[in-house]
Structure of YcjX family protein:
Amino acid sequence: MDAFKTQLRGLGRHAQQLAYRSLDQHLRVGITGLSGAGKTAFLTSLVHQLLHAQETHLPMWQALHEGRLLGVQRQHQPDLTLLPFDYEGAIDGLCQSPPSWPPSTRGLSEIRLALRFVPARGLKRQLTDHLTLYLDLVDYPGEWLLDLPMLSQDFAQWSAQQWRMLTSEPWDRHAAPWRARLDAVCDDSVDEIAQGYAALLSQLRSELAATYLQPGRALLPGELAGTPILAFFPLPPERFERSDDPLRDLLAARYDAYCQQVVKPFYRQHFARFDRQVVLLDTLGALDQGHAQIDQMAQSIQAIMQSFHYGPGSLLRRLFRPQIDKLLFVAGKADHITVDQHPNLLALTDSLMGESGRRARFSGGRVETMVLSAICASQQGQIDQGSGVVPVIRGLDPQHQPTTRFPGEVPKRLPSAGFWQQQGFDFATLAPPRLERPQSALPHMRMDHLIEWMLGDKMR
Amino acid sequence: MDAFKTQLRGLGRHAQQLAYRSLDQHLRVGITGLSGAGKTAFLTSLVHQLLHAQETHLPMWQALHEGRLLGVQRQHQPDLTLLPFDYEGAIDGLCQSPPSWPPSTRGLSEIRLALRFVPARGLKRQLTDHLTLYLDLVDYPGEWLLDLPMLSQDFAQWSAQQWRMLTSEPWDRHAAPWRARLDAVCDDSVDEIAQGYAALLSQLRSELAATYLQPGRALLPGELAGTPILAFFPLPPERFERSDDPLRDLLAARYDAYCQQVVKPFYRQHFARFDRQVVLLDTLGALDQGHAQIDQMAQSIQAIMQSFHYGPGSLLRRLFRPQIDKLLFVAGKADHITVDQHPNLLALTDSLMGESGRRARFSGGRVETMVLSAICASQQGQIDQGSGVVPVIRGLDPQHQPTTRFPGEVPKRLPSAGFWQQQGFDFATLAPPRLERPQSALPHMRMDHLIEWMLGDKMR
């Protein structure tokens, strides 16, 4: 070690700088979650806490606590063809009167921060008085991960699976008019029926809070809006009995093209480059809706987990060589329940992953779960209505009127269908808190735990 | 030959069909032109004339004239990630009361037609009673071709060229406020100044009819809207004298990324696949505007022609291996002048190509020029106002009021600047004719010449 230092001193100043610089690190973190999970609010808060770390309350972040963080700066993003994450727009919305939640994710966006810090100990500390960690945060729709299972299905298998959903409770009633139109499909009406299918998926999501919907790009088409690669839909089982069916062949060709030209490129160009991944879940929102919704969310989580099961020899590893070493599922919006319910929310979120998911170490390491609130919109309180003191939350409803709520107990495990008949929940959205100035502290719950999970080992 | 036929007969029916089918042909035609040149109206008319060939007047189309065209059908497009060309929408607009011109091109779109015909003679005729020609028509903004010269310039050379334009008549006055903002640029305002530059290009185009504007994607950003790859702009010469300038390095990196990740992929994925190319020019519109505009249009045409000069060893050929065998420049909107002026419009359009362009055989063959009207919005007439009979056109103005115009004489060559002081033009847009039914004949001028140019040799 001393010999190495002497050797380094022997090099010129330029070479020394190069050697130090090679100690700088890059970390690329994917942030995802299904529509409505709060990705934009989460990323806004994360960037805000990092940029204003010195003025805010982040006790669990070790490097900050030890006084080793020298500064955090925003930098130009590395991928020029991606949208920049609109941090300023989100902060502007929170500073308005009344404040507004940031608009939702429409596609991929990116932001880069540079964190300058003093290494804790060891060789690095000997070599240099500070290092820089370049942190790239990439936000993308969780719906895109739900497409992965399509890569190991053909059009017939996929159709059979979708058809089962479209003909079962509670989705079947909404799907019936579209299924009737499909009976009369002809070559000229294919694209129209495909549009109807995309509209049906949107309706299932908005009216019934369905989450496991394919193809994911039908819900957020972006640049592919209106192109034939999205214009496919499942066919009923009887269409797979005939030997010759031009419509079926057309749809199967589009399905295959979607897998090859849309799903795979996302995994290759983006997913494979993430070092860490945060998946946000709106467990409370699904619980609020009913049994079918939370049950489907469990299916969605388990489908999303497939993207992280890339053991040696797996399809994912062979195709894309992903390198994610830490994976975190976050149950957000913890400010919408009382603090005493947080352990239950953690247990419930864990249980949604299923037996395999919960115990499993994913291919990179252990899956972790966390309960937090990125932007805290409530205060905790207590009221006594004669029958004893109960914990409540106080905040503003979406119309910005003060509200006091007892949001109900969160069950520890996926409840049975009968549960919703006895008891309801009240996890409806609250209005965001107003930021006085863009640099004021943004209230949160456990964002410091999250930062330590994400960056701790890279800032030693 | 007889031996070959006997041999073929010896094969089974299936093999015979395969042999015949290999005689079917594919033809991929690029349709382009600068914004406002009338690409959508042109492509709408072309598709309409082909689909309704039997009911319309296309005397110069040899295969039709000889009764060898059996039928034309629309087919599913081959490229699933491209937008379909909205033919129905355009026809719907023409059928409304009052009718409207189709909306303009926003990016790439595609349509496929299958033309079934009887071969004229020779081996093909012996082998089969009919063949199919698959015709893919691909519409894309001409602005994208204006980016080609950027591939052989670095950021400093490009800046110098742009700066010359931005500081010379008549563009300098519009550019002055942006140039003043640029003097105060800092790292935080780069993206804002880039947005200002894009706005300036739009303003130069809409208010001064400028055509030679780079980067082309700044005017029609599509999926790249808001990304850093478009956020660059030229710097004044003095910024290239300092040795160290982080802003200049940032912009140069974006410029290079634009060339590599935007310009080249278009040439590789699309341009290199065209067999034939039609470039529409709005010569009359530029003439209407003034000397600087028609002079810049000549520069634009000459820049566009660079995309077709790919002799052996050229950059284009090495990079993309284009295979265009016929190239046509079309001066459209010929219905906006009297027929006696058509030869002059042809001569003027020819002269805009410059000496080299006009005489040049481009690398695939001879460049041709044609004067036509895709959708004819006027009738030819004559009036006598005492000083003798003069030819006029009659049509409806954009407010759908009857108008009789003597649009003025079209000069045979690029006129000098003084010309506009003595004489004006009146080539302002007319309202489109109304289609009674979607399948009614669409009036045109010389679309049959164009079809024969495009398809004649493939339908022998």
Notes: Chain A touches chain B through 20 residues (CB under 8 Å). Chain A has a mean pLDDT of 89.
